[in-house]
Amino acid sequence: MTENTKTGKRNWRPATTLVHEGGMRSPFGETSEALYLTQGFVYDSAEAAEARFNGDDPGYVYSRYANPTVSMFEDRIKALEGAEAARATASGMAAVNLALMASVKAGNHVVASKALFGSCRYICETLLPRFGVESTLVDGTDIDQWKKAVRPNTRAMFLESPTNPTLEIIDIAAVADLAKTVGARLIVDNVFATPLYQSPLELGADVVVYSATKHIDGQGRCLGGVVLSDEEWITEEVMPFVKHTGPHMSPFSAWVLLKGLETLPLRVAQQTNSAGQIADFLAGQSKVSRLIYPGRDDHPQADIVKRQMRAGSTMVAFEIDGGKEAAFRFTNALDLIRISNNLGDAKSLITHPATTTHQSIGEEAREELDISDGILRLSVGLEDTLDLLEDVEKALAAV
User: Fold this and answer.
1) How far is the C-alpha of 399 from the C-alpha of 335, rounded, in Å?
2) Rounded (10°) angle between helices 251-283 and 68-81
3) For the chain, what percentages of helix, strand and coil (3-state, to nearest 5) are there?
4) What is the number of helices (H) and of strands (E) in the chain?
5) Where are the alpha helices (DSSP H) in the chain?
6) Cross-strand bridge partners of residue 291
């Protein structure tokens, strides 16, 4: 371990950071982080309460605002991400909504990639306009479309990369440069890449959001989200939103997620290794008409992958020849891999986006995003790779 003389922060590598950073030990000196399952806090005097509320005395006031266990989670994830500040939320969608709502006001404009999770598109297309914020959706891989969509009142840009479910890669640095030029805040949903494989802040993004439900917990136990950015914006814009609208993470979820962070590098490395082998196997199968995996040279944006990602992904997207009927036959023939719309779990999970995660966006939007009825999204888990390959091979035989 070395120490950064400029910031005073310890330059631990990610695996060490995820075990030791963000500790807040009580006088008992516990090894594991303490779970402060409390709603409120008490004060020694009325004067102490007044000082706490007016900010003269730093400390905790109410767990809807902040909580010691939640603070430990926030400190650990911001150390990994390289962010100045973080605010944890009750779910990933709460984090996305928080990041967007804290970035705009009535009369502003948002530019976002079309390739978004269905609920994210709902916020951009339906929710924001109710509050006087217009949005324009563009092909995220085409920087010219981003440029053409910009207006004088554009104040936020939003994207996910890799995208859900077709694993498109967007040039984050290029969009970040544009956002800075026009005075907009770039928000990046980094859930598919995880903080281990992609660092949007280093690429120029202003805000990173995660559904901690996915890889960060990664074991199907609880919901959570987090927004990371600079200290000023988090304090002045995000914190009042959290305080007055209540999307804060629960202490119990924060404790579970702290435990998840400790094993994140081990889990994601194994999942990525298996995903790569499954992708290579599927690429050679005649019943698979399309294979999309960021770790392969045949990925449509392979050059960008090599520039901005440190490894492939735990996710594989592929199209079964024969449409929905064939895709369903394949899915129903699986024994080991479970059918679920979740991802980033220790268990391998598969879903049919056209009828689940992206059903709500409509057929026209799915066609525009190339989400065909034959597309399947596979989240690779921690099972033995050979068992997973055998399960996939058997299911293909049933198509």
Assistant:
1) 14
2) 40
3) 40, 15, 40
4) 16, 12
5) 14-20, 46-54, 68-81, 92-101, 118-122, 128-130, 143-149, 172-182, 194-197, 231-233, 239-245, 251-283, 302-308, 323-332, 363-368, 385-397
6) 318
Instruction: Tell which residue, 107, 167, 165, 160, has the closest CA to residue 137.
Output: 160
DSSP code, position 398: T
> What are the residues whose beta carbons fall under 8 Å from the beta carbon of 182, sequence distance 6 or more?
150, 154
The tokens 């679920």 sit on which residue? Answer: 340
Q: How far apart are the first and last CA of the chain?
A: 53
Separation CA 392–CA 67 (nearest Å): 44
Yes or no: say if 225 and 91 are a contact pair by the CB < 8 Å rule: yes
| Paired tokens of 205 | 């993004």
pTM above 0.85?
Answer: yes
pLDDT band for position 3 (50/70/90)?
Answer: very low
* CA 279 to chain CA centroid, nearest Å: 22
Structure tokens at 278: 């499954």
CA separation for the pair 3, 325 (Å, rounded): 57
> At a CB cut-off of 8 Å and minimum separation 6, what does 366 contact?
353, 354, 358, 372
Question: Which structural domains are found in the chain, ordered by start?
Answer: 14-260 (3.40.640.10), 264-397 (3.90.1150.10)
Helices (H), 284-384: 302-308, 323-332, 363-368
pLDDT in tens, 61-101: 999 999 999 999 999 999 999 999 999 999 999 999 999 99
By CB atoms closer than 10 A (0-12, 13-18, 19+), residue 132 is exposed
Residue listed under structure tokens 């802040």:
201
Neighbours of 28 (CB within 10 A): 6
Give CA–CA dist 270/399, Å, rounded: 28
Question: Which strands sit side by side in the sheet containing 288-292, from one edge to the other?
Answer: 288-292, 315-320, 375-379, 349-351, 338-339
List the structure tokens of 132: 């006087």
